[in-house]
Amino acid sequence: MEIVILSFTDAGCQMACKVRENFIQSGYRVKVYTLTRFCRLYGFHAFPEDKKSWIGSLWGEKALFFIGAAGIAVRMIAPHVKDKFTDSPVLVMDEKGSYVIPLLSGHVGGAVELAKEIAEKINAQAVLTTATDVEQKFAVDVFAKSNGLILTDRKKAKEISAVVLDGNKIGLYSVFPVEGKFPEELKLCETEEFLRNYPYGIRITGRSGERREEETILDLPPKNLVLGIGCRKGISEEEIQSAVNEAKKILGFTEKEVIEIDSIDLKKEEEGLLSYAAKWKLPFYTFSAEELGKVKCVSSHSEFVRKVTGVDNVCERAAILAAGEDGRLLMPKQCMNRVTIAVAEKKVRIRI
Questions:
Q1: What predicted TM-score, i.e. pTM, was given to this entire model?
Q2: Domains of the chain with bracketed CATH
Q3: Confidence class of residue 54 from pLDDT cuts 50, 70 and 90?
Q4: Torsion on CA atoms 255, 256, 257, 261, rounded to nearest 10
Q5: Cβ(251)–Cβ(221) below 8 Å
């Protein structure tokens, strides 16, 4: 996650230095913007002249951390606010660093966790106003985000939170092992059928094509699929998309369930692959031929591919390697015109 810090006074810039250093130590990418007169002194970026358009360009992509009055933050973000599923996480901190408040996208965007994290590091107070946080109740959106699960129905998620806050219990069924201490409002069900004993249930199963929608059950499929892709030079985004669509038909998944795309390093600048990854906001990783060669067993071998790339099967090896030792190959190499594709899944671990 990239965090953009906005400060407006000399004291605010001093606090921004402290906040930035702590976030960087935690592995975040951080940029700080301030008024022009403070830039040289602190080495920060200057606010663009058109702040409204600038905030719009960051919206939904970066976390915004304001140091100053909450009113300033509200006025600057107001034109861009839509909903918690697409809004940027927005936080505000006073320039003395006493309080930090997550204003928007607290759970889905992670503003609450950012507030807690920085508050602990600089000895500030995180001011949380979300009902499930205040009441210390199970929050399905936090649960989904922390476990890499896809929130398939926003309306059901809100209804589950309302049911929990009213003091009712909900059921949870998962085909994957669940670890951790269950809150009293969440009950583990041994079968899907038991979910129907509760006002609402949460179901964590396989891919989209394997589920049927039910009115009082919220599906949280895992985002754990890896696409291994090989292709001819000069491949187009459309050809990549067509190949993926065929794989989707075979396995019954959607792009939302894909966590990354992988290939050989010879393809790291392949425009069609890069465009497809950017379109779906998926990370694109590559391996060397030597790394791919460490995969011991693949379903097919191509002497032509080996001569060109140094390895006999790019897509399948890439998928298996990316899925990890405890992953699983779901679809071996398939040839789709000028594209080869394989699909693997990373092991799913569910924690309460």
A1: 0.73
A2: 2-129 (3.40.50.11220), 140-219 (3.40.1390.40), 225-350 (3.30.420.180)
A3: very high
A4: 50
A5: no
